[in-house]
Design brief:
Number of helices: 12
Structural class: mainly alpha
Order of helices and strands: HHHHHHHHHHHH
Mean pLDDT: 74
Number of strands: 0
Radius of gyration: 42 Å
Helix content: over 70%
């Protein structure tokens, strides 16, 4: 019995010794530590800073902002040139620019006051005046809703009005009209208003030219006097509102035959296909 107890005790001691050896031999693998995540700057999550960043990107990506200074500078130079030209002697254009050529027969009017009665004579048809009034009213409404276009038009008119003497020896107003058109579109495009500027031109001149070619049956005066015709159109609009130029009071007598004519043509067109 004593021997069995000693053998069991020796076996137990051996197993304990082997367990301790295994613990010592066993290599404890280190646990993988999580890598620190990159800290996101607090300024990026701030909505105010995000708005500033987006505004900076828009300014950098917007091509019109890069030419705004150039457009304004060029427009100011055009205005200053026009103002300077207005202070030159009266015979400067004929003696220096036109090389001694006299004023063309098609351009006898030297001032706007002399031109305006001729403009009213070219718009003697009441229907033509109504078409002009409608187109000008829409243009005025558009300009009042967008002051940038109004400024562009004023600058263009001022440049054309003060430089019209330059083209007095020419038979038509092509170059003067191109100068006015270029100034208006150039200044409007610099302020990202190019499409609206085209819309204003189409809106105004479409009504006017329909009145001339289909009712008055004459050529618009703007083909010879672009600047004078532009300001005279707005002056006639004011005179029609004030009642000094007939047109608005006779609108019933003008529209009734016009609408009846349109109605008869429409019925004839429909009857052909029935």
């Amino acid at each position: 019995m004593v021997e069995t107890r000693k053998s069991s005790a020796s076996k137990h001691a051996a197993t304990q010794a082997e367990a301790e050896k295994q613990k010592e031999i066993k290599v404890v693998q280190p646990q993988a530590q999580p890598q620190p995540q990159p800290q996101v700057a607090k300024t990026q999550n701030n909505p105010k800073n995000q708005k500033k960043n987006t505004q900076r990107k828009v300014v950098e990506e917007d091509p019109s902002s890069s030419i705004t200074f150039f457009v304004i500078f060029t427009s100011v130079c055009l205005v200053l040139a026009a103002v300077g030209f207005s202070f030159l002697p009266e015979n400067f254009a004929t003696d220096f620019i036109l090389n001694g050529a006299e004023r063309h027969v098609n351009k006898p009017f030297k001032t706007l006051a002399d031109f305006y009665p001729f403009y009213l004579q070219e718009h003697s048809d009441p229907t033509n005046r109504i078409f002009h009034f409608c187109g000008t009213s829409l243009v005025i409404l558009t300009l009042l809703l967008d002051p940038v276009l109004l400024q562009s038009l004023l600058i263009a008119f001022f440049v054309g009005y003060t430089s019209c003497t330059l083209f007095a020896g020419l038979p038509n107003g092509t170059y003067e009209g191109l100068l006015v058109l270029f100034t208006f579109l150039f200044f409007a495009a610099g302020n990202a208003k190019f499409k609206k500027a085209i819309f204003v031109l189409v809106l105004g001149y479409s009504f006017a030219w329909v009145g001339h070619f289909y009712f008055e049956l004459n050529k618009p005066a703007t083909f010879i006097y672009p600047s004078y015709s532009l300001v005279s159109d707005f002056r006639m609009w004011i005179d029609m509102v004030m009642g000094t130029v007939p047109g608005l009071r006779e609108i019933d007598t003008i529209l009734k035959p016009l609408l009846s004519n349109v109605q008869t043509k429409a019925t004839q067109f429909i009857s052909q296909y029935q």
